[in-house]
UniProtKB/TrEMBL annotation:
Origin species: Mesoplasma corruscae
A GO BP entry: monocarboxylic acid metabolic process
Family, per entry: Belongs to the short-chain dehydrogenases/reductases (SDR) family.
Name of this chain's protein: Sorbitol 6-phosphate dehydrogenase
Taxonomic placement: Bacteria, Bacillati, Mycoplasmatota, Mollicutes, Entomoplasmatales
PROSITE patterns, A to Z: ADH_SHORT (PS00061)
Xref: InterPro entries: NAD(P)-bd_dom_sf, Sc_DH/Rdtase_CS, SDR, SDR_fam
Length: 249
């Protein structure tokens, strides 16, 4: 079996860490790009067989320096994300720009750098963005996040067209609410205010919206990610795949 190299941008914690370890379990060479210095330092001691590169994913210079250290890429997963919840009349420009930088610009920069290496090596690789149902339908009090995620779908389709001649596939996964993720947990106080309910009731509120009556799990994400990066999905590119339990169809 030929060893595959997977680069996970935003792979040091929460969902990203889970995906990194799942790929490690199936003997992929895992390379993590992240800017969380303390977390990276801790993970280097715990998982020495994973390569961690401290990277500011919103900086072209930092991203290019990181990819100079990578010789071969079969798969790029862009998992970095940022969300802040506020009504449009109160939403700050800096927060909107930060949402675009982390959720969209970072995806562009890493995908561009990865594609150059794949083309150079004639690797028929796979690029996947971890997107959101907020990139499919508008999200109340989440204009920055939703706008960036909608942009991710257009970027995915455009890159799929650009890279098809090289055999490189580009897709994105549209996740439902990851109720156990650090991002969702950080938003619970603002969601409670938005919904006028107790913080302890927020997760159940979102579960009740889902026909299958549960949140999206990290394992749900990996199952679809593994399929779409495998040869079994070799005829799929430019797709945005819902993983929402039927909430968004």
């Amino acid at each position: 079996m030929i060893e595959k190299n997977v680069v996970i941008a935003g792979g040091a914690k929460s969902l990203g860490k889970f995906l990194s370890l799942k790929f490690k379990e199936i003997k992929y060479k895992v390379i993590v790009l992240d800017n969380d210095k303390d977390t990276i330092k801790s993970l280097k001691n715990e998982f020495s067989d994973i390569l961690y590169i401290e990277t500011d994913l919103t900086s072209e210079e930092s991203v290019n320096k990181a990819f100079e250290k990578i010789e071969k890429i079969d798969i790029l997963v862009y998992n970095a994300g940022f969300a802040i919840s506020n009504k449009i009349t109160e939403f700050k420009k800096n927060d909107f720009i930060k949402s675009l930088d982390i959720n969209l610009v970072g995806y562009f920069l890493t995908a561009q750098a990865a594609a150059k290496i794949m083309i150079k090596n004639k690797t028929q690789g796979s690029i996947i963005q971890i997107n959101s149902k907020s990139g499919r339908i508008g999200s109340k009090y989440n204009c920055g996040y939703s706008a960036a995620k909608f942009g991710g779908v257009g970027l995915t389709q455009s890159m799929a067209l650009d890279l098809a001649e090289h055999g490189i596939r580009v897709n994105c996964l549209m996740l439902g609410n990851l109720l156990d993720s650090q991002m969702f947990e950080s938003l619970i106080p603002s969601y409670a205010i938005k919904l006028n309910i107790l913080e302890s009731e927020v997760k159940q509120h979102y579960i009740d919206k889902v026909p299958l009556k549960r949140g999206c799990t990290f394992q749900d994400v990996f199952n679809m990610l593994y399929f779409y990066t495998s040869d079994k999905a070799s005829y799929c590119t430019g797709q945005s795949i819902n993983i929402t339990g039927g909430q968004v169809m």
